[in-house]
Amino acid sequence: MTPPPRDHVTLRCHGHPPARPLPCPQGAVTMAVAWALGPLGVVAIGTLLLALLLGWLWDAVVTVTRFRATCHQLRRFPRPPWRNWLLGHTGMVRGQRRGQGA
After folding, report:
1. Which residues make beta-bridge pairs with 16?
2. pTM for the whole thing?
3. Which residue ranges run through the membrane (predicted)?
């Protein structure tokens, strides 16, 4: 009697069937890519992520600075006198119905 062929499917460890592969979580994919690229690849990916983060931070700082400069320039213009909304609208509409005094 010949033994069955010893490939990865029929190979048994201590009489137990081979284990099913486990689902791959997200972190394992990153680790697999990092392992495939080696230590230099990890440094390159880290540098790229740091550059993206610093770029976004720089854009946020520039946006806030421009907004503050615009507000500062707009403060130079004189403001109109503040009037009450109700008092500002009195006398704008006149009654058009018959029987009214106007």
Report:
1. 13
2. 0.43
3. 32-58
